[in-house]
Amino acid sequence: MKKRRLVMRTVILLILGAAVAYTLYANFSKDKVHKVEMGKEAPDFVLVDMEGESHRLSDYKGQGVFLNFWGTWCKPCEKEMPYINNQYKQFEDQGVQTLAINISESNLAVSKFLDRHNLDFPVVIDKDGQVRNAYGIGPLPATFLVDPEGKVVKYHTGTLTESMVREFMEQIKP
Amino acid sequence: MKQVKCECGHVNPHGTVLCESCGRVLVEEEKSKKVVDMRYEGSARRSQTYNKTIIDKIWNFFSSVKVGVTLIIITLAASAIGTIFPQEMYIPTTEPASIYYESQYGFLGKLYYVLGLHNLYSSWWYLVLIASIGISLVICSLDRVIPLYRALKNQKVSRHEGFLKRQRLFGISKVDELDHSYELVKEKLESKRYKIREENGDILAEKGRFSRWGPYINHIGLIIFLIGGMMRFVPGMYVDELLWVREGETAVIPETNGEYYLENHKFVLEVYDKDSDNEAFANAIENNGMVAKNFQTDTTLYKKSAETVAGEEPILDKVEDYELRVNEPLKFEQFALYQQSYKLDELNQMHFALTNKETNEALGDLTIDLYNPQDEYDLGEGYKVEVLSYFPDFEFDENSEPVTKSRIPNNPAFVFKMFTPEKPDGEVSFVAIKQTIEPFGDNDFKMTFKGVETKNVSAITVRKDLTLGILAVGGFIFMIGVIQGAYWNHRRIWLRRVDGEVWVAGHTNKNWHGLKREITGILQGTGIEEPKDQLDEKEK
């Protein structure tokens, strides 16, 4: 009977402990929970670039995709653009595609920005925020890495250095 | 395993004070008392003796009511402290929390921020406190309700003399016609709806036992309530988001998987009017100036009718038109949309005229959509304006370069190049609100500001709360427990024949006055004397 009591108490305490642990864990990860889970299929989208060409994410299966969310007004975004451009040129032939998704700005603002920075990779504008919503984008810049199978393998917010961009692209090389 | 075998033959768990069956006092120190402690029926509620393993130690810690009450007091104090200054989520977004608290409330504000009290209700230690109260509730209840149930279930009709003698209400009488008196007493007890058990000529009359379960039912309700609170953290159970929609804009509603869209036709802010509204308001309007009467957004809810990929123009089916007012939410599926806030007169379009500075002659008007400006505006007859740069939210940065703070046109500025037949190479002018800079010397032409068009923006709360049902059930059970414990009393009356005398004892969990009155009524005319309140005697 004494043994049974110990087992009962242990079981009850374990259940209560598990509930508390889960609540604490859920509370502290709630700000970090993303719509897009690592290892899961990246939400598909189709957006038109400044040359009028459509880019559909699922069409790039078999290639890694470096997805960069940005804004012309965002200083850190502006800073990392040249790094992304340099690495884009290195990895373009190795099966890594780069797509820069502008969040809901005017064509004028984006095209003036592109004129200033001479960027070679396709830049698309998410006019009505659907893609931003699907990816749950908060502060900019935000970068997603999509592997050749179309799965999200990394999410990063904040400025990238050139070596980070290289490392990231290396990671999704087919 | 040490168990206590009472002289009556009943085997009690270790730590029992009063035998579950006959009520004999089993603990020496209790024997010296005149009146026994009847809480939990003298059962072995907290087996302090099983203090050997760590599990037992944790268990015994939480099973203490003192610990539980201390936890509740600490939590109450902490909750109160959290209301001294506003929590971080309620401070204006214009200043970061690290600066806001100090600038607003001085040293105490800084202390508040440094100690992390600005995020008190989601801090780990606050959650641990709440969780500990939950654990304490479960363990305290289990540790008491099970022994109590056992004791009440096992109680014998003929209780030991030592038990009866030590009841608060106790008396001994000598009655000649005892059998007759017994019949009378039984009749009266029954009419008072007592349940009567008889054994060897002894009587146990009992009623309202279920009142004893009130506190535990109440605790079950509380625990369900806490579980409901915990469920808010489970993804998909609880949504509380803010959606800003401009007039004329259709926006995707967050957390609906891109399924639902909301169009804002118009935002309306109405104020009370001295002339057209009730005269009684006239004074108040005079004193306070504007008094808001209505905040309203005229909306249309759409549902996406076909699968489209994000970024594609969605195909939308209208669900309904709705006038969204404060406290009149638009409900769909499990969501509710509330009118939350607004921003009046956000810049949307600007009108300019290309003007000859000398003659003041207007050579053509242009309207710039601040959300989608064109590269150039052809005014005909050789007049043309090109937009070289656009800064929707203009400011000068640390290098005195014009930059934009955001993509929202709060303070638009442009660099124009004006082409005219007189100046075919163009003149450059920087135009912001109330300032014009001509970086390459004096121009012959200028862009004259003609006016703006504005739009209102509505802020709408998107809420979904699947835990409300659980909270309601928890609250309901809680109230049942309260009622059960508060409006019923557990009363027991014992009659026992001892050597030709009759011993009467009474016990209730509360409202002794009521029990005494009932006993008076029952014993009247039976020849049995009313039992005395031994606590009263002590005082005398």
TrEMBL record, chain A:
Keywords tagged on the record: Cytochrome c-type biogenesis, Disulfide bond, Redox-active center, Signal-anchor, Transmembrane
CDD domains hit by this protein: TlpA_like_family
Segments forming domain Thioredoxin: 36-174
Gene3D superfamilies documented for this protein: Glutaredoxin (3.40.30.10)
Protein's cellular compartments: Cell envelope
Record keyword Disulfide bond present: yes
Cell membrane as UniProt keyword: no
PROSITE patterns per the UniProt record, alphabetical: THIOREDOXIN_2 (PS51352)
InterPro entries reported for this sequence: AhpC/TSA, Thioredoxin-like_sf, Thioredoxin_domain, Thioredoxin_ResA/DsbE_sf
Domain of life: Bacteria
Record-linked PANTHER family: THIOL:DISULFIDE INTERCHANGE PROTEIN DSBE
NCBIfam families to which the protein is assigned, alphabetical: PRK03147.1
The protein's name in its UniProt record: Peroxiredoxin
Species of provenance: Cytobacillus purgationiresistens
Origin organism lineage: Bacteria, Bacillati, Bacillota, Bacilli, Bacillales
TrEMBL record, chain B:
Primary location: membrane
Subcellular location: Membrane
Entry keyword annotation includes Transcription regulation: no
Membrane topology: Multi-pass membrane protein
Transmembrane segments: 67-85, 124-146, 216-234, 466-488
Positions of the ResB-like domain: 65-427, 442-519
Keywords: Cytochrome c-type biogenesis, Membrane, Transmembrane, Transmembrane helix
The protein's name in its UniProt record: Cytochrome c biogenesis protein
